[in-house]
C-alpha cells in the first residue's frame, strides 16, 4: 500500500474552494456576482454592482502588476501576511505598500482598498515556516469584468519606469 503525503494547507484550500489559476498569478474563484447592475460614471457599459473572489498566493507566487478600472477591497483571511503594493496610474510616484494580515502594533491590518486605475501587485511575506501561503477575499465595485483588467506590458513605458526607478519591484512585472 502506497502512502501519500498529506496535502499542504494551500493545496487543501485550492481543492476545497475549487480555485483556478489567475492570469496575474496565484489562484482564484469567483464566489459572488451581484444581480444588481450599475452604470459607471466613466462611460463603461453597465457592470454588476459588486463581485467577490477568493484569491490565494502560494509562497513562490505573486500577483503581477495589474490594474482594475473599479475600486477593489482586499481582505486578509488566513496564512502569512501579504505585502500589497500600489502605484499611481502613470507609475510616476514611488510605489507604496501595506501589510495585510492580523492586526498588530506595526500597522498590519486585515483590509485595504485599492482605488480604481491604480497599479497593484502583491506577494506573501515570507516567514520561516514551511508551506507559506496567503488567502484573501477581493471585492470589486462596480463589479469585476476582465474588460476592465490589464497587466503591465513588459515592453511598456510603465515597465521601463518600474525597472529603472524600482528594480526591486520589477520582478513582479
From TrEMBL:
Pfam families: Cupin_5 (PF06172). InterPro entries: Cupin_DUF985, RmlC-like_jellyroll, RmlC_Cupin_sf, YML079W-like. This is DUF985 domain-containing protein. Residues 11-151 form the DUF985 domain.
